[in-house]
Amino acid sequence: MITVKLVELGSAIQEYCLEDSSCVGDLLDAAGKTFVQGSVTRNNTAINKGATLYNNDRIFLGRATKGNVPFEVNFMRLGSSSVNLPAEDGYTIKRTLEQLGAEDRNKFYRPDGSVVYEFRVSGSGRPVDENYVLRHPIDSDSIRVICAERVKGN
């Protein structure tokens, strides 16, 4: 068995377990997606429906153009599960969170629209606000954002 992530902007990243000899077509069938030539990429390179998949592959649905190379943002909340969302270079934390459904998005915002958490982006160590601009990481394809509940004094 192999594990493959399907990344589609505007949707949460989905993870699929497939047979070892699976191809892109098998992944798309499992996801209920239709193959469109030139719109499926791996490592910013277009691949065809018969391309073999490998363990831990990240397959991106959508044309790969400059500035349209996705990466994953992992929002970690202490005492809660984490959520992985796709982002592009230049997305803000707020823009990335807007991809969540209303129920999940409300976990990050109070009824008055103010932010519940302070955010710390991996590697920065300092708190940032929801308008912090995310940049494609240099040495990986993901960014971790630690969400700590705002309390007086932090």
Task: Write up what this structure looks like.
- It is a single chain.
- By secondary structure, the protein is mainly β.
- The protein has 3 helices and 10 strands; from the N terminus they run E-E-H-E-E-E-E-E-H-H-E-E-E.
- The chain folds into 2 domains: 2-61, Ubiquitin-like (UB roll) (Roll); 71-149, Beta-grasp domain (Ubiquitin-like (UB roll)).
- 11% of the residues lie in helices and 31% in strands.
- The protein starts with a strand and ends in a 5-residue tail after the last strand.
Task: Give a short summary of the structure.
The chain is mainly β and 154 residues long. It has helices at 24-31, 93-97, 102-105; strands at 2-8, 14-18, 40-42, 45-46, 58-61, 71-77, 83-87, 117-121, 127-128, 142-149.
Supply the key terms.
154 residues; mainly beta; Ubiquitin-like (UB roll); 2 domains; five-stranded mixed sheet; 31% strand; elongated
Euclidean distance between termini CA atoms: 45 Å
What's the CATH superfamily of the largest domain, by name?
Beta-grasp domain
Please work out how many helical segments DSSP would assign. 3
Helical residue percent? Answer: 10-25%
Q: Assembly type of the shown chains?
A: single chain
Q: Order of strands side by side in the largest beta sheet?
A: 2-1-5-3-4
Number of strands: 10
Rg (CA only): 17 Å
- Main sheet overview: 5 strands, mixed
Averaging pLDDT over every residue, what do you get?
84
| Percentage beta strand | 25-35%
